[in-house]
Amino acid sequence: MTLRGKSSSCRTGVVFWLCLILASQMLGTFGVASIMAGQWATQPSSNSGPPRADDKREMEDLKQKRNAEETAEAVAHDQSSSSARRKRALAKANFEQMKHDTDQLADLARALQEELGRSNTNVLSLDVIDKAGKIEKLAKKIRGSAKGI
User: Fold this and answer.
1) What Rg value do the Cα atoms of the chain yield, rounded?
2) Model-level pTM greater than 0.85?
3) Enclosing H/E stretch for 14
4) Domain ranges of the chain
5) Cα–Cα distance between 41 and 145 in angstroms, integer?
6) Which residues of 29-48 are buried (b: 16+ CB within 10 A; e: fewer)?
7) CA distances (Å), 120 to each of 22, 104, 114, 123, in order?
8) Which of 20, 64, 116, 132 has the fewest CB atoms within 10 Å, measured from its CB?
9) How confident is the model at residue 124 (pLDDT cuts 50, 70, 90)?
10) Does residue 77 register a pLDDT over 60?
11) Under 8 Å between Cβ of 97 and 145
12) Which helix (H) or strand (E) holds 25?
């Protein structure tokens, strides 16, 4: 693999990154992290005798933290599933309302057409203006709810 056109610092970074990946695969994640932190020589060996009281307390603390995290994850999962159910129910209710509004819009449009058919070219009734305003408001309401979905 060659890195032509790249600066030497970039190549050095890539080589370091590849070495780090190789070391993590050979030693495992914990081994690389402890080497990088300079703690390789200070780690107690696994056969150095019975665990100390401090180690037992640390293990218990870790278990409690893990249990608390699992509980928090379970609560978050329950909340997300209930919020997803609420969102689906709300979307369904909005869709049903839009269907109802479009039926009402079609009825108003037919009534406006009939009213215009009864009127002559010189005189329009106030019902025509009123129905046109209702149609406009209803169409805006439908458009707004459709954008929200």
Assistant:
1) 36
2) no
3) helix 8-36
4) 8-41
5) 65
6) eeebebeeeeeeeeeeeeee
7) 88, 26, 12, 6
8) 64
9) confident
10) yes
11) yes
12) helix 8-36
